Amino acid sequence: MNRKTIYIGSIMVIILILLGGWGYYTKHNTIIDFNKTEAIPEYQVKNKEVPLRIAMVSVLSHADTAKYQNQLADSIGRMLNRPVLVLRRKSYAEINQLLNKGDADIGLLSTGAYCVYGKKEELTLLAMQQRNNLPYYYSYIIVPADSTDYTFEDLRGKKFAYVDPLSYSGFFSVQARLQKIGITQDAFFNSYSFTYSHDASIRAVAKKFVAGAAIDSLAYDYLLKYRPQIASKIRIIEILPPRGTGPIVARKGLIDEKKYSRFCCIYMRIKLQKMHWIIF
């Protein structure tokens, strides 16, 4: 038997095996014809309610803030029987932008952020924070505990830390102080920067990255109570005039204002008495 005959015979054996296997497969299995389709029955899916979007920043460290922000959001959701989505942003400018574009329903603003908001007629004031029954707070100028600077004027020609360009305590208060002595920040400070949280400004001073900073008195109170080891590393050299606390606002047309505003004013006042120094 020559090599050609062996080759042809092998091919025939393979073909017979394949045909036998196909016959067994078609006998015991279903062949799917993709040209024959069957309509899928429609399933009724309940539309979930759009979550209430609450925009806020963390003026202290995220670890200190997130827990209480989530508690506040969860409480609002339970009271309204509606899902709540917390929109955390780095700056107050971003919060204002979310409200302006309709991408947030409720915003927790700083005093400065509300003052510069360009479309106040499109916002509904819901509540203002209180601390010890006082609806205002102060701006503190701080330096390292062992600093030789004892007045604001001593910070001339040195590095300074602001919190946020739309923060009263962390920016506008200092601008007013500089205006009072007739000088600009560029002429007064050697350099300045924005930390975007009171916590970061405090740490920058404590570690002597900067000669001084402006912070919220409420953030300082929190520091004394929960971070005394850090508070011991800084010192207040000047207290700037008080300003009204930042408001909680909602976009117009969000809800029935009589019902919802009354609820928010009562509920927020209770909640903020316990945790506003952490949320804002």
UniProtKB/TrEMBL annotation:
The chain crosses the membrane at residues 7-25. Keywords: Membrane, Transmembrane, Transmembrane helix. Pfam families: Phosphonate-bd. This is Phosphonate transport system substrate-binding protein. It comes from Megasphaera paucivorans.
